[in-house]
Design brief:
With 380 residues, this protein is of the alpha/beta class. The protein has helices at 10-25, 42-51, 68-85, 98-109, 129-140, 149-157, 171-179, 186-192, 197-206, 216-219, 222-235, 247-255, 260-263, 275-284, 293-302, 317-320, 331-344, 359-371; strands at 2-7, 30-35, 59-60, 90-94, 114-117, 143-146, 165-167, 208-212, 240-244, 267-270, 287-290, 306-308, 324-326. The strands form 2 sheets. The protein has a 7-stranded parallel sheet, with helices on both faces. Helix 1 packs across helix 7 (171-179). The longest helix has 18 residues, at 68-85. The structure holds uridine-diphosphate-N-acetylglucosamine.
Length: 380
């Protein structure tokens, strides 16, 4: 039986790697991989395929950049002829990006059974493009694979039959565990990024905080972006910051003329980092400042304190059990959370249930059983 995995953006690649491996290991299933081309740079795309040993995609739709609607429409137009000519026995989509939404819509309209990995996460904030994607994809999915209890609760309260929900754990943590020993050393990452040698040595020897910010709510409004960068410049007087700039954030900083704010203090700016470099920095950081979804989970799994610059999280287990603190969007709150973290060593946590590196194996076992007509779906 053929299982078609559809991916498009950086976090998708991290999640699909263990699933492709587990599918390949299953004699009864033949994986196929379609890349939408939503992310296309070497730094956002091919380096992840290389490091995570993801097979080359069978097809790349090369949709590139655009508004969310443009991306979604182009992916749908590209996918429909492919999936209708040779319909797979099941389509798998992961996460919540525009590629996930577009692929789910096409599969559902063609009557192809659909599995969603990382189902049920809800921020409750529909101004996030990802939240709209999550709601629609879950509504259309036949099998919903969840990573934490809140996701099961959300799906049940939305009326999804518990028979379709399978609690499998977190595929992103499968990848983290598989790659942790290969993480890149901090010094080599910083010198590879062309950072000032004295500043890099200071970061490696005395400690640093790792920063990633790219959510539209933080970076698309120039005033908001300016105040965040000012806050980072103040924090950098207390601890060196390593700021991995997402292309979206870089573009916004440049168009708002805010580049100077990054030059004035102990901030090491790097391009988007490869997976092994990013987890190498995360593992060694005193703490992390982020608005990413995946980084909230990775820091919890690594036991590194995380300050999330958002008002809501779709991953509450990272706050309830892990090392994550939802700081909110106030600059003052961020500054005081940093002070508390520096003074107290940061929040400690525990590893959430089923974040054990075996989520992809459970997903493939459930799909195999489902397609084989066996009754292996567990009640949630
Ligand atoms: C997308 C996802 C987000 C995820 C993030 C991780 C959606 C709605 N959002 O946001 O959930 O956390 O990816 O990176 O799908 N760009 C490049 N090179 C690339 C890819 C993008 O320069 O390889 C530029 C684009 O031209 C665009 C900007 O980055 O200007 C944003 O890319 P886009 O794919 O629209 O969304 P992200 O902000 O990356």
């Amino acid at each position: 039986r053929t299982i078609c995995c559809i991916v498009g953006a950086r976090p998708n690649f991290v999640k699909i790697a263990p699933i492709m491996r587990a599918l390949t290991d299953c004699d009864r299933l033949t994986p196929q991989l379609i890349h939408t081309g939503q992310h296309y740079d070497v730094a956002m795309n091919s380096i992840f395929f290389d490091e995570l040993e993801i097979p080359r995609p069978d097809i790349n739709l090369e949709v590139g950049s655009g508004t969310g609607t443009e991306q979604t429409a182009r992916i749908m137009l590209g996918l429909e002829p492919i999936l209708s000519t040779r319909p797979p026995d099941m389509a798998i989509v992961v996460g919540d990006v525009n590629s996930t939404l577009a692929a789910a819509l096409v599969a559902a309209k063609l009557g192809i059974p659909l599995a969603h990995v990382e189902a049920g996460l809800r921020s409750g904030d529909r101004s996030m493009p990802e939240e709209v994607n999550r709601l629609v994809v879950d509504r259309l999915s036949d099998l919903l694979f969840t990573s934490e209890q809140s996701a099961i609760d959300n799906l049940i309260s939305e009326g999804v039959s518990p028979r379709r929900i399978v609690f499998v754990g977190n595929v992103m943590i499968d990848t983290l565990r598989a790659c942790s020993t290969r993480a890149a050393p901090v010094r080599s990452t910083l010198s590879g990024a062309g950072a000032d040698p004295a500043l890099s040595e200071q970061a490696a020897a005395l400690g640093f905080a790792f920063v990633t910010l790219h959510r539209p709510s933080n970076v698309d409004d120039p005033e908001r972006l300016e105040s965040l960068l000012n806050a980072l410049a103040r924090i950098a007087r207390k601890i060196t910051l390593v700021f991995a700039l997402h292309p979206r954030t870089r573009a916004m900083i440049e168009s708002a003329g805010l580049d100077a704010l990054l030059l004035t203090s102990s901030i090491i700016v790097t391009p988007p980092l490869s997976y092994l470099r990013a987890i190498g920095l995360m593992k060694e950081a005193r703490f992390v400042i982020t608005d990413s979804g995946g980084v909230q989970e990775e820091t919890t799994a690594l036991g590194i304190p995380c300050l999330t610059v958002r008002d809501s999280t779709e991953r509450p287990v990272t706050v309830q059990q892990g090392t994550n603190i939802l700081v909110g969007t106030s600059i003052e709150a961020l500054a005081s959370a940093v002070d508390d973290t520096l003074a107290g060593g940061g929040k400690r946590g525990q590893i959430p249930p089923m974040w054990d590196g075996k989520a992809a194996e459970r997903i493939v076992a459930a799909i195999d059983a489902h397609l084989g007509g066996r009754h292996a779906l567990l009640p949630a």
